[in-house]
Q: What sequence folds into this?
C-alpha cells in the first residue's frame, strides 16, 4: 500500500490580528524585493519542523496563505463574513494561475478535483474513440476514460517514453501527466505535441506534479488539468482546467451550477440556462476556504518566478542525487529503492517522504534548502538498493 514515511509534521502560524482577507492576500510582496532576495524571502514564509520532502503528496502553506486562512476562519467563527468577498481571492488565484501557465484567465476554469475536469473531456469523446496514455498513469487521469467503455471508448496504455511513437490517425486523444506521480519521470511533451499535430489528435496534460516547479505552456495543448494542493501549496479542494477557446463549445458543462453562470450571484434561481461565455462555464462551486489560501500561495510562486522555481527545485534534487552517487536528473521528484533499514534512518533524521509504487519518493520545492538535500543524502548514503 502507498503511504507516507517520516516523523510528524508540526503546525506553524502567526497572529491574524484584525486585517481583512484582502489585506492578508497581499502580505510581503516579493516582487518589491531585489531579484537575488526573492527566493530567500519566499523560503522564509515556510515553517516546517522536519525535513519535508513530500510536496508531491501535499504541499506546505506559505505564511501568508496560512494567515489569510486564519483570518477567514476567525471571521466565519464570529459571524463577520460576507460570502461575496470570497470571489476576490478566487479571481486572484485564477489570474495568477493563468500567468504561471501562459494563458488568458478566460480560458481557465476552477474546481475542486482533477477528475471532474477530465470527466468533461471523457464525456465529450465520440463513441469508439481511442485514448492513448502511459502505463501506470495516475488514475484520476485514467479512470474517467475507462468509465466510457460502455460506448466503445478504448484506452491504449504504452510506456511513457513511447507515447509519441504510438500516436496514429485513429488516436482521438492523448491523456498524460507532464510529470509522473509515481516516480517523477517527465513526459516528452514536445514530441507528443508534434506527433499529435500530424494526426489531428488532441492532447490533455495533467500538470498537477509540474506547475509550481516546471515551466508549462498550457496554451500548447487542447486541455490541461491541475490539482492545487501539491506544488501550488493550497489546502485540498482547488483545481484548474484550461481549454483552448475554440474547443470550449465542444464540451458539455455537465456539472454546471450557479457559479458557472454569466453573473454567478444573479443566476442562483430559475431558468433559462445562462452560463458564462468563456471557460468559467465549467467552474465548480468553490470550496471557499481552500481558495482563500490558494490565492496568496500562488502569489508567492508567481513573485519568485517560474525560472527561479525550476532552477531551485531541480538544483536541490540533483544535489541530493549527487550525495547518494546518482546521476543528475531532470525532475524535482526522485524515486529510489532503499534498503530495509533506510526507513529508520530517515525517521531519525526527521526526513518526511512517501512510498509510491513500492519505491521511496522524495520531492524538492520552495520550502526546501541545501541542508534538506544534504540531510536526506546523509541518511540514505550507502543504503540504496537501486
A:
Amino acid at each position: 500500500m502507498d503511504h507516507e514515511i517520516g516523523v510528524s509534521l508540526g503546525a506553524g502560524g502567526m497572529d491574524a490580528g484584525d486585517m481583512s482577507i484582502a489585506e492578508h492576500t497581499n502580505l510581503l510582496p516579493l516582487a518589491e524585493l531585489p531579484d537575488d532576495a526573492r527566493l530567500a524571502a519566499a523560503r522564509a514564509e515556510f515553517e516546517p519542523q522536519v525535513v519535508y520532502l513530500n510536496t508531491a503528496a501535499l504541499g506546505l502553506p506559505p505564511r501568508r496563505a496560512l494567515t489569510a486562512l486564519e483570518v477567514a476562519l476567525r471571521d466565519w467563527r464570529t459571524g463577520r463574513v460576507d460570502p461575496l468577498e470570497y470571489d476576490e481571492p478566487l479571481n486572484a488565484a485564477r489570474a495568477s494561475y493563468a500567468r504561471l501557465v501562459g494563458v488568458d484567465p478566460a480560458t481557465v476554469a476552477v474546481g475542486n478535483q482533477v477528475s471532474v475536469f477530465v470527466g468533461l473531456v471523457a464525456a465529450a469523446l465520440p463513441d469508439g474513440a481511442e485514448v492513448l496514455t502511459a502505463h501506470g498513469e495516475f488514475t484520476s487521469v485514467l479512470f474517467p476514460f475507462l468509465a466510457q467503455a460502455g460506448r466503445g471508448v478504448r484506452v491504449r496504455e504504452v510506456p511513457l517514453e513511447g507515447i509519441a511513437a504510438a500516436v496514429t490517425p485513429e488516436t482521438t486523444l492523448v491523456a498524460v501527466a507532464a510529470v509522473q506521480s509515481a516516480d517523477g519521470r517527465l513526459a516528452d511533451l514536445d514530441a507528443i505535441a508534434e506527433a499529435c499535430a500530424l494526426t489531428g489528435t488532441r492532447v490533455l496534460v495533467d500538470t498537477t506534479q509540474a506547475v509550481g516547479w516546471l515551466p508549462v505552456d498550457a496554451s500548447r495543448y487542447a486541455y490541461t488539468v491541475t490539482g492545487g494542493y501539491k506544488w501550488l501549496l493550497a489546502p485540498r479542494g482547488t483545481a484548474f482546467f484550461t481549454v483552448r477557446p475554440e474547443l470550449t463549445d465542444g464540451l458539455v458543462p455537465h456539472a454546471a451550477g450557479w457559479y458557472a453562470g454569466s453573473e454567478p450571484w444573479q443566476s442562483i434561481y430559475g431558468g433559462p440556462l445562462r452560463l458564462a461565455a468563456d471557460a468559467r462555464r465549467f467552474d465548480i462551486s468553490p470550496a471557499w476556504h481552500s481558495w482563500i489560501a490558494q490565492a496568496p500561495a500562488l502569489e508567492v510562486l508567481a513573485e519568485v518566478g517560474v525560472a527561479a522555481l525550476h532552477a531551485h527545485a531541480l538544483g536541490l534534487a540533483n544535489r541530493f542525487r549527487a550525495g547518494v552517487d546518482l546521476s543528475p536528473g531532470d525532475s524535482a521528484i526522485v524515486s529510489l529503492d532503499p534498503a530495509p533499514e533506510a526507513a529508520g534512518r530517515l525517521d531519525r533524521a526527521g526526513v518526511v517522504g512517501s512510498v509510491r509504487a513500492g519505491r521511496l519518493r522524495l520531492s524538492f520545492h520552495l520550502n526546501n534548502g541545501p541542508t534538506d538535500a544534504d540531510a536526506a543524502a546523509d541518511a540514505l548514503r550507502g543504503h540504496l538498493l537501486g
Observations:
- The first strand starts at residue 3 and ends at 5.
